[in-house]
Amino acid sequence: MKFTVLLVGAAFALSGCGAIGSLASGASGPFSGGGLRGSGTEIDGVRFRTRVQSSKENRRDFTTVTRNAGRDLSGAVEAGRVQAVEYCLRQVGGSEILWSQGPDRPIEQIAIGEGGDLVLTGTCISR
After folding, report:
1. pLDDT, tens digit, 9 for 90 and up, residues 64-116
2. In 3-state terms, what secondary structure has residue 113?
3. Cβ neighbours of residue 112 under 8 Å, at least 6 residues apart?
4. 10 Å Cβ neighbour count for 14?
5. Number of domains in the chain
6. Which residues does UniProt assign to the signal peptide (predicted)?
7. In a domain, 62, yes or no
8. 24 located within any domain
């Protein structure tokens, strides 16, 4: 009897092990930006972390920040675009975006910040 109780308790304890890691990695959770470190997106074998932040006044307005964009600028731009589309799908149910500073610009016109981060901004316009 004690062994069964111990076994069931251990199963419950181990079942939640992935919960803390998934919040930090952006796999799921209550954070709109995909977790504490952002959501991971793999483009051409390079993994990028992108956080999406929205305006408090209008949830349709957003900014994506993709870390270490210098490794592959075109991949970082695509990772930011993918996360923006996912954000708009969750927020307004559609993927149309009006870009202020977006992936629709020529690659040579897209700037990388001092910290090596790529910033894209736009507004979800679906519905």
Report:
1. 999 989 888 999 999 999 999 999 999 999 999 999 999 999 988 888 888 89
2. coil
3. 69, 70, 73, 118
4. 9
5. 1
6. 1-24
7. yes
8. no
How far is 100 from 16, CA to CA, in rounded Å? Answer: 41
Domain that holds residue 54: 38-124
User: Which residues on neighbouring strands pair with residue 43, listed in sequence order?
Assistant: 46
What are the pLDDT digits (tens) for 4-25? 444 444 454 444 444 333 334 4
Q: Decide if 47 is inside a domain.
A: yes
Q: What φ, ψ does residue 5 adopt, rounded to 5°?
A: -65, -45
What lies within 8 Å, CB to CB, of 127 at 6+ separation is 92, 93, 94
What does the alpha-carbon distance between residue 50 and residue 71 come to, in Å, rounded to a whole number?
A: 14
Residue 127: its pLDDT value, please? 62
Which backbone phi and psi does 122 adopt, to 5 degrees? -170, -175
Structure tokens at 54: 């929205």
CB proximity list for 50: less than 8 A, separation 6 or greater: 34, 38, 39, 41, 64, 65, 66, 67, 79, 80, 82, 83
